[in-house]
Known about the structure:
The complex is a heterodimer. By secondary structure, chain A is an alpha/beta fold. Chain A has a domain at 2-211 and 356-435: Amidase signature (AS) domain (Amidase signature (AS) enzymes, Alpha-Beta Complex), CATH 3.90.1300.10. Chain A has 13 helices and 10 strands. A 10-stranded mixed sheet of chain A has the order 2-1-3-5-4-9-10-8-6-7, with helices on both faces. In chain A, strand 6 (213-217), helix 6 (227-242) and strand 7 (246-250) form a beta-alpha-beta unit. In chain A, helix 5 (173-183) packs antiparallel against helix 13 and helix 7 (258-273) crosses helix 10 (324-345). In chain B, helix 1 (5-15) crosses helix 2. A two-stranded antiparallel sheet of chain B has the order 1-2. In chain B, 36% of the residues lie in helices and 4% in strands. Chain B contains 3 helices and 2 strands. At the A-B interface, helix 7, helix 8, helix 9, helix 10 and helix 11 of A face helix 1 and helix 2 of B.
Amino acid sequence: xxxxxxxxxxxxxxxxxxxxxxxxxxxxxxxxxxxxxxxxxxxxxxxxxxxxxxxxxxxxxxxxxxxxxxxxxxxxxxxxxxxxxxxxxxxxxxxxxxxxxxxxxxxxxxxxxxxxxxxxxxxxxxxxxxxxxxxxxxxxxxxxxxxxxxxxxxxxxxxxxxxxxxxxxxxxxxxxxxxxxxxxxxxxxxxxxxxxxxxxxxxxxxxxxxxxxxxxxxxxxxxxxxxxxxxxxxxxxxxxxxxxxxxxxxxxxxxxxxxxxxxxxxxxxxxxxxxxxxxxxxxxxxxxxxxxxxxxxxxxxxxxxxxxxxxxxxxxxxxxxxxxxxxxxxxxxxxxxxxxxxxxxxxxxxxxxxxxxxxxxxxxxxxxxxxxxxxxxxxxxxxxxxxxxxxxxxxxxxxxxxxxxxxxxxxxxxxxxxxxxxxxxxxxxxxxxxxxxx
Amino acid sequence: xxxxxxxxxxxxxxxxxxxxxxxxxxxxxxxxxxxxxxxxxxxxxxxxxxxxxxxxxxxxxxxxxxxxxxxxxxxxxxxxxxxxxxxxxxxxxxx
Lengths: 438, 95
């Protein structure tokens, strides 16, 4: 990986001198180890893919390299992106660089840390239920989850295919816009990538917010949100109000059903997607299996970690005869209700503003004993994936322990421009305020 | 409704996973707690609603029926645990 990066750097130096360099020339990047890079390891944080090397490049990696970005490494993650703390990796837990007794969030924790600790200027993460936005919030950086279909999933190892979407984690909103406009767009290798024009997202920075209608969903500001986080968000809302944005309270009445709906559907999709790890064609195979069935069972049992097995079990359960209608079918219908909630509020709003997560970074080990408690930590992020919407998390002050608070902006489908525009405004206003003389 | 050890055993068989007795007890307890939480969805009347399988406005996406270059047999087999004469090799399935 290092050699490939150095060789590319020399090539790009040459192109810079000739005036032919790409738009991301020399930008040092990292990618979550769930994206394929030709002849490089692709582990997904799992023992089952320990020795796997990808035979091809993911489309988004090709697009970044075509614009002369340099990818210097792959980042640790919750195994197969299943987790909210990056403690579920076969290769060990990731720590938060701002306080090493705390988690960096997950599942793209390694990517958020690479950016927060200045190891890379930008990193690619993936977001199935908040896995770009929540670690960005916990590490005090920017995380942008594009609309479902905006970025090709070719070369992105599948977890829950109707939810997964890749996007940038960066230090600034402008950087996120620059990366997104490079990786976005239809791809013949991914039939779910959207045949919709890609605007120049980076031209949305330094715009005003006058007259923009910003909705505050009351369900996201209910009890359970810590008072110091609430006051950080309130400050940002006041800045927007003073700048002429129209702030309005709205309601997404089915929010309380989002976690249950999400965990039925993603585990169902995961149990199906992860059936491919059978020890036959690639990945880990158990020693001396007595029969074909024994090979499947032992390779999977020894190859997968605890949380992955739990989700495969849950997904298989909700899809099994007798439970399919009660759980899987039911959750798909509730997904319709959750989408309609958003359709309804977007008739009167341009964008929604919420906290990214109900808490700031929690302690390592805090939620490991109880899977349901960990799932509930995704309360403010999963609805966005159920509805396939774009959303960004931007830093918005600190809590009483000095840990970063994340502010989430949610846009209409394919209106990343709006969340970038408002996110950039909030980021710069907060910076101005911090730099202002007392 | 509660998730029993028998349920865990049946689902493990379907998912091709193996668990020790202690793990089964723990899994039954955890899955029971999670499934009980999911029961919340029953509060909603969804009889007349369409299911959402995916969130896009796309119908079938077709491409022209043309042959295009693909990866070589060598790279398709490069990650295989065992290979025999250009095939994936697995334990005998028929006695």
